[in-house]
Design goal:
The protein is mostly beta strands and 236 residues long. The chain contains 3 helices and 13 strands, in the order E-E-E-E-E-E-E-E-H-E-H-H-E-E-E-E. The longest helix has 12 residues.
């Protein structure tokens, strides 16, 4: 397989990306096709659907070996589950699947067609292998159970973001950023109230601490991409 497109959004690194698609619906992104696939006919009729499936690559989580078990962060990083019972990026094949809201298929952009979506859980530049329409009668199962993933479905933090710092964020991105912070971007097994985290978002680094159920932003600086990024983009 080879990528047909890539995504453009405000996540230059993995840290802070929502753990599931649709978790933060305010997040906006664009899907840009590779030159070979920039054909408006390939998207004909897609605008008639409200949601689409993205099949993509965990391009920053490739490994030469795989493990049959992983430690889901939401279980504290200490409990092992079978890799096929999780959404872990560390899989035999580094393939991701996300359902996102389709807001527009634009034919008047420089790189048209361009697909505009909301609620994606992908890092900026992530390669996309395929796009398929979401079909409610076949894809929606209200009676389904979600095992341990259900435990955090309604979990959110209270966010305190000083107005003079929030002003550094473009107005059109503030709602999405606040929702990402409320969703608790920290690794689930880290709970040190004195620890300061740095989360890249757009061209800014958002610095915050979490005490109990409250996240407090204490600084916003310009983002400088480091040579080696990891989920431990944290600083004491």
């Amino acid at each position: 397989m080879k990528p047909i497109a890539h995504i453009e959004n405000d996540f230059p690194t993995k840290f802070g990306i929502p753990r599931q698609s649709g978790r933060v619906e305010a997040l906006k992104a664009r899907i840009i096709f590779e030159p070979e696939y920039r054909n408006a006919d390939a998207c004909r009729g897609l605008e008639e659907f409200s949601h689409i499936w993205l099949i993509w690559e965990f391009s920053e989580a490739k490994r030469t070996k795989w493990s049959p078990t992983v430690r889901p962060p939401r279980l504290g990083g200490n409990v092992r589950k079978g890799v096929f019972a999780t959404r872990s990026p560390f899989r035999p094949n580094s393939i991701g699947l996300s359902c996102v809201k389709l807001t527009k298929v634009s034919l008047d952009e420089p790189d048209s067609p361009v697909i505009f979506v909301e609620g994606a859980d992908l890092m900026n530049g992530t390669p996309i292998f395929d796009i398929k329409p979401y079909i409610p009668y076949a894809d929606c199962h209200p009676e389904a159970t979600g095992s341990f993933a259900e435990f955090v479905r309604d979990y959110h933090l209270n966010v305190e973001f000083p107005p003079h710092l929030l002003e550094k964020i473009p107005p059109e991105s503030r709602e999405a950023l606040m929702a990402v912070l409320a969703d608790d971007p920290r690794p689930a097994y880290q709970n040190d109230p004195e620890r300061s985290y740095g989360m890249p978002f757009g061209d800014k680094d958002i610095h915050f601490r979490v005490n109990g159920d409250t996240l407090r932003v204490h600084d916003v600086t310009d983002f400088v991409k480091k040579q080696q990024e990891s989920a431990a983009d944290c600083e004491k």
